[in-house]
Amino acid sequence: MKNYSAPENQIMRRILLIACASALVVAFKVPLAAQGNKNGAAGQMPALYDGELFTINLKELSDTASDSTIGNNPSVNNIYVSNDLDDQQDFIPVIDAIQGDGFNPLWHQILIVFNEGFTPHQFFSDDEVLTAAAGANPEITLIDTGEVYRCSVVGQK
């Protein structure tokens, strides 16, 4: 078996993660609403945090609760998504915190839209998302959906 250098190990880990992420995207192509009671395991889906795959359990708050939370809770986390969380995802959502690293169980849904001339692809961390949205010619536009979800990180994949 070949021994890989540190940079090669990172590349191999990234390739493996992309393969796993692709398989999970296929597995989760069914909208969450069609899978059963979203208060239980049917509300579970994969999410990425700093390049690691986790399982999250989520439930959307009402419009009134979302508005109040966004207006009054400055420590709400962000979940970056390719499509509304009620719909199938083209890419695995990215979260910006886990337990022990700024975690709050309330998550503000932010939609990722790729700008013209850029090929859509999977992001692996919130830093990658924010970098892609910055600069004079950003790769993506981030859209505030005004929706908040109660989201628990229930395990590592």
How would you portray this structure in words?
The chain is an alpha+beta fold. The chain is 25% helix and 31% strand. The chain has three helices and six strands; from the N terminus they run αββαβββαβ. Strands 1-2-6-5-3-4 form a six-stranded mixed β-sheet. The two termini are 26 Å apart. 24% of the residues are buried.
Q: How are the secondary structure elements laid out?
A:
Blueprint: H1 6-27, E1 44-49, E2 52-60, H2 63-72, E3 77-81, E4 94-95, E5 106-114, H3 126-132, E6 140-156
Parallel strand pairs: 3-5
Antiparallel strand pairs: 1-2, 2-6, 3-4, 5-6
- Tell me the Rg in angstroms: 16 Å
Structural class computed from helices and strand pairing? alpha+beta
Distance between the termini: 26 Å
Helix content: 10-25%
| Topology order in helix (H) and strand (E) letters | HEEHEEEHE
Find the count of extended strands (DSSP E, 2+ residues). Answer: 6
* Broad shape: globular
Q: DSSP strand (E) fraction?
A: 25-35%
- The whole-number mean of residue pLDDT values reads 79
Largest sheet: 6 strands, mixed
Task: Offer a few descriptive terms.
alpha+beta, 157 residues, six-stranded mixed sheet, globular, 6 strands, 31% strand
Structure in a nutshell:
The chain is an alpha+beta fold.
